From TrEMBL:
This is Helix-turn-helix transcriptional regulator. One of its GO terms (molecular function) is DNA binding. It comes from Panacibacter ginsenosidivorans. Residues 7-62 form the HTH cro/C1-type domain. InterPro entries: Cro/C1-type_HTH, Lambda_DNA-bd_dom_sf. The lineage of its organism: Bacteria, Pseudomonadati, Bacteroidota, Chitinophagia, Chitinophagales.
Length: 74
């Protein structure tokens, strides 16, 4: 999939665990884990907004578009 989720990178930069982020954005650990691993098929804007607010970042810091042929650059 050409959309890469860099949630783990932003969490590491903010020194925040998945459990802590889950509590702060009021999202289940399972759903947040699915998003973090890139297995989510969709994300609500309200969820993205809450994550960005807690991590003090922009949506582009979390989501990245990479063309299918350029996956080796990740």
């Amino acid at each position: 999939m050409p959309i890469i989720v860099n949630l783990d990178v932003m969490m590491a930069k903010r020194k925040m665990s998945l459990n802590e982020l889950s509590e702060k954005v009021d999202l289940t650990l399972a759903n947040l884990s699915i998003l973090k691993t890139g297995k989510a098929k969709a994300v609500r804007f309200s969820t993205l907004e809450a994550i960005c607010k807690v991590l003090n970042c922009q949506p582009g810091d979390i989501l990245e578009y990479v063309e299918e042929g350029n996956k080796s650059q990740i």
